[in-house]
Amino acid sequence: MKQKLLLLVCFIAGIGFSQAQGLPTNPEPGKCYVKCITKDEFKDVEETIQTYPAYTTLKVVPATYKTVEERVLVKEASKKFVYVPATYETVEVPYVKQERRTDLKVVPASFGNDSRTFEIYPKTSGWEYKVLEDCPSVDKDDCVAACFVEYPAQSRDVTFTTLASDASTNSVPVPEQTTTYKKRVIKTPARMDEIEIPAEYTTIKRRVVDTPASTTTNTIPAQYQTVTRTVLDKKGGITTWEEVDCELLDPNVLPVFYELGSARLTGSSKTTIDNTLLPLLRDSNVSIEIMSHTDSRGNDDFNQSLSQQRANSVVNYLVSKGISRSRLTARGFGESRLTNRCSNGVDCSEAQHQRNRRTEFRVLSN
């Protein structure tokens, strides 16, 4: 967990000593400074990928027919003899009733699946500082540990559809339809007197192809999806120094009051935060620690939880005003840091208990 280290820098030595210790150059006597380490800056980029390919669909337009009439001979001309008339026999003559054609059968497009892995958050690393508790040294810098922490990149798999084969057609031949008509032909010619027998005709109807079968094409557009990825825009880790009021380095009591047993901020408390903490955070890069306390009345565990909730409510309010949560630390102390003698079992006035129900803040360095 990222810890905040408080540094109080006073002008007690020459410039050469300050540079050797990595302290601010040209400090002013009586001024205090905090060390701020710039954070990594990130940005969101959008990338459009194809999740479904473009393809075509085909629709068959069937062949059309028309009916035509045709005059055909159904009885041939002949001669007739008086004494021996001609004799006939009937035969069947084939003809095409419907011409052959070719139909088209649609073979639909086929699809497959594929996936692609995108890095949605890059690999990051940086220094984190930790102050050892119960430091025996007067100089707190002797108890500071620096840890280089590395966080792995985050990835996401995106599944999309691929076109295996596009739509096509197969030819389906349809054979012609035939039938017959009957025809009488001379079997034996007439003899003796010759009499002319005229030919006979009839009209038949048949269907012929007017327009052949065809297809119409419809193109289905591809589908796309936009993937948002967070990438490192500017690497942090640069140390800067901010001049602050020396009084802000020690706990400062805020006139922030809560309803009994509640962590909800009142309107007057929000005004206090707007006038006190917001200008400090917006005009500098410093970080602050919010510390909340309760009086001794009530269960110790409940008071500890309530004080943490109250500190969190101040942090959440500052975040809602645009302050980065990484610059804020919330700590609840319950009734462990009373400012007077009003501990458990001690008879105290309401005003004395009120002095223990307080919220404090102090400036931290990164």
Automatic annotation (TrEMBL):
InterPro entries cross-referenced by the UniProt entry: Bact_OuterMem_StrucFunc (IPR050330), OMP_bac (IPR006664), OmpA-like (IPR006665), OmpA-like_sf (IPR036737)
Superkingdom of origin: Bacteria
Signal sequence, start to end: 1-20
Keywords, sorted A to Z: Cell outer membrane, Membrane, Signal
Stored Pfam families: OmpA (PF00691)
UniProt subcellular location: Cell outer membrane
Any single Gene Ontology cellular-component annotation: cell outer membrane
Record-given protein name: OmpA family protein
OmpA-like domain mapped to chain residues: 245-366
Keyword Signal found: yes
